[in-house]
Amino acid sequence: MSFYDNKYDFLKYKNFFMILSLVLFSLSVLFFYTKGLNLGVDFKGGTVIEMKFAEANKSEDIRKSLLKINLGDVKVKEFGSNKEFLATIEKKGENNDFVASIKNHLEKDLNKKIDFRRVEVVGSKISKELTMDGIYSVILALVLMLIYIWFRFEWQFSVGSIIALVHDVIITIGAFSLIGYEFNLSIVAAILTIVGYSMNDTVIIYDRIREFLKKDDKQEIGALINDSINSTLSRTLKTSGTTLLALVSIYFFGGEILKGFSFAMIWGVLIGTYSSIFIASPILIFFNVKRNWDEVVDNTP
Amino acid sequence: MLYFSRFKVLSIFVTLLLGIYFFIPNIAQLNNNFLFPNKKVNLGLDLQGGSYILLEIDSKPLVDQKLQTKSLELRRELRQKNINYLNFRTEKNSLLFDFKEDQKNLLEQVLNDKLINSSVGATAREFSITYQANIVRITFTEDLINMVKKNALEQSIEIVRNRIDELGTKEPNIITRGQDRILVELPGLKDPGEIKKLLGKTAKLTFRFLSNTNDEKSMGIEALNSSKKDAKYSVEKRIVISGENLIDAQPGFDELSNSSVVNFKLDNLGSRKFGAASKDNIGRNLAIVLDNEVISAPVIRSAIVTGNGQISGNFTAQEANELAILLRSGALPAPLSIIEERTVGPDLGKESIQNGIFSLIIGLFLVVVYMLYNYRILGLFSNISLFANLILITSTLSILGSTLTLPGIAGIILTVGMAVDSNVLIYERIKEELKIEKSNLIAFDTAYKKVLTTILDSNITTLIAAFVLYYMGSGPVKGFAITLAIGIISTFFTTYVFGRYLVSIYVKKNKENLIRI
Fold it and tell me: Do B465 and A141 touch (CB under 8 A)?
């Protein structure tokens, strides 16, 4: 396992990575404001219908048929096979027969038997609430972590880790905006899990930095951080590896519903691992990290 | 760190055995075997199929109605006390009128009278009073509005329950959410169409006479649509009897008209009222009005004193049945609207479970091979603790009776990937320690010691994320948070406690040999 015994100079190119991240970050913000997110019904309101036909069909035909009745904007895409489709409909229906009437129309118009396998109808009031809940929960998670790290380490670590987390969250949102994958509740869940995961990664390196700081208060901070990254590197890569193995398995075999979620997680694990090494740790150089850890450490902020 | 007292070893095995004991019902068909518990993991609606429906009560009409009543009451009182008022008007949740300055004291007395401005709860009153020059504004307090909402919610949930029970759905879960919402969960239901239809009607039934005049503008008369035909009726506003007087309603069949009907039975008061009214109005049409639509308006041929009656309106059998259910279960105090609905068919649920289990097996296989390749014998220990972990997660879910959702399955698979993290941390640390320390025992011991804070710190951050998810998320996402949290805790036990025990046996046997990882 000689690969892991090598020592890499991670800080040599720290400016390059900082700028790279800054560029990715800015692009994400730019995409978010210009292109926006492909919001699912959870956040936009409307109706989603997953339907299954007995034989193959074309999504365009279904869309055309749905446009004949007044449903507002309609999107139809294949969902797993050419017999299964997902229709996203702008309207949510005024009366309680709405879904039944869509089904009647489609079956008559296409002259085929259709199974509505999943139906989600979200009113505009609920979608607004879910949006606010989503935003609050990400902020709440970040604040709680900030406090925890502050409590366990020092404020410099806490700020460094939060910068890395915000970086991860924004760039993940940027990726969703760029690719145009649907952004729904499960993606928010994925983002929160990424926050937890990336933090986990960062904490392990920070832990090592703290350990080295306690052991040696002479070593130059950059070298010390680099040593810490190196000595935890094989763990960082192996854990990311096993987590990715599990996630790739969900992505390919877990069914269509979990596709978006597992994609977000895979992306998040990659970006989280990157940010722990190249953002969260080097950034400590810029803060004046406490060097004298000899006395009993007072952890209270 | 490598020494385990007998008591500790015993508790490790007791925990694992309990885990297996509660795990078994999930994989075997036991059919109430007396040896094993009945509890299985609860499947969420997205896995077993079913409907999640969130209803909201529109309480505005109730508040408006309350405002109307209050305004009548107040004006009567003001007249009695000879207090002059002008420009009596209503605005959102408040009444306004002009008064004469010299009557202000008198007015204050009336408005603060407990009979007019009654108490709500312990300290609050029905309305607050503000004076502005010679205008007084009476505003319903938040407490009163909340009480109106609360009462409406309590009444509504009973009626919703009645209506759903009538359809015989298995184990519906009906609970209140917040101040004005009702959550209905219907597991195993394939098509919620019929239930949605039933919940969409307030079902206010009234019996009123058709007006003799056709003048729509005259007081006490309103024009109502027919429920079936494209026709209008002018109906008196005066109510003869209403749905509250009904004690039973059953669908039936009328041989004469060859169509389905609803037979109803009135209570004593209703029978007397109905008897008197029908006796005095023979020959007139009596309109049967449901939610402001006229179902039918038959002619009264004789006095009806038995309290039994029949509603006919060219119903199909199903319509008659629905109407009977609505009448039996009573009227909702205010309209309910569906603001969120999520329905999953049972086939899709089954498919999701299959996909979930398949990807779990693949993920597990990949991780197991990876760990064996990287850490050989230690990898084997890690894999044993990983299986123990899965058993513990499943049995904990069964014991707690928490719900497993599709994202929950994803959470378990994710745990498989992340659970080995603690092992990787420990084993990597052991490697480092072995480089500086010659004694296996000491190297392993220090590694476990040093790595503990790291494991705790890193897992607590993930726990924080799971905690936030649980409190902010809904339905399926909550399921994900639960499995994630249980996964983290059981991972700590299986890797740091059970896994360490396995390693300690191995190290003690190989004190002298060189251990290569």
Answer: yes
Which ipTM was obtained for this model? Answer: 0.86
Q: How far is A166 from chain B (nearest CA, A)?
A: 14
Other Cβ atoms less than 10 A from the Cβ of B115: the count is 8
Q: If you measure CA to CA, which chain B residue comes closest to A206?
A: B454
Q: Does B121 touch chain A (CB under 8 A)?
A: no
Contact A118 B348 (CB under 8 A): yes
Asked if the Cβ–Cβ distance from B465 to A119 is below 8 Å, we say no
- Tens of each residue's pLDDT in chain B, 517 residues: 778 889 999 999 999 999 999 898 888 776 666 777 777 888 888 898 899 999 999 888 888 888 888 888 888 888 888 888 888 888 888 888 888 888 888 888 888 888 788 888 778 888 888 888 888 898 999 888 888 888 889 989 999 998 888 877 778 889 998 888 999 999 887 778 888 888 888 888 899 988 876 555 666 788 888 887 778 888 888 888 888 888 899 998 888 878 889 999 999 998 998 888 888 888 888 899 988 889 888 888 888 888 888 888 888 888 888 888 888 888 888 888 889 999 998 889 999 999 999 999 999 999 999 999 988 889 999 999 999 999 999 999 999 988 888 888 888 888 888 888 888 889 988 888 888 877 888 888 999 998 898 888 888 888 888 888 888 877 678 888 899 899 999 999 999 999 999 999 988 888 777 666 6
Q: Are strands A74-78 and A46-53 parallel, antiparallel or unpaired?
A: unpaired
What is the rounded CA–CA span in Å between residue A70 and residue B379? Answer: 60
At the second CATH level, the architecture of A46-122 is 2-Layer Sandwich (3.30)
Which of these, A128, A177, A168, A140, lies nearest to A272 by C-alpha position?
A168
- Contact assignment for A204 to B197 by CB distance below 8 Å: no
The CATH number of the structural domain formed by B6-48+345-509 is: 1.20.1640.10
Closest-CA distance of chain B to residue A73, Å:
19
Residues 220-279 of B with CB under 8 A from A: none
Q: Find out if CATH 3.40.50.150 is the number for domain A2-39+126-286.
A: no
Q: Any chain A CB within 8 A of the CB of B464? A: yes
CATH code of the region B205-339: 3.30.1360.200
A126 contacts B339? CB cut-off 8 A: yes
Report how many Cβ contacts below 8 Å link chain A to chain B: 219
- Encoding tokens for residue A10? 């991670």
Q: State how far Cα A193 lies from the chain centre.
A: 8
Alpha-carbon span B324 to B516, nearest angstrom: 79
Q: Could you tell me the residue ranges of all domains in chain A?
A: 2-39+126-286, 46-122
Chain A contact for B181 (CB, 8 A cutoff): no
> Torsions phi, psi of B285, nearest 5?
-90, 130
Statement: the pTM of the whole predicted model exceeds 0.90: no
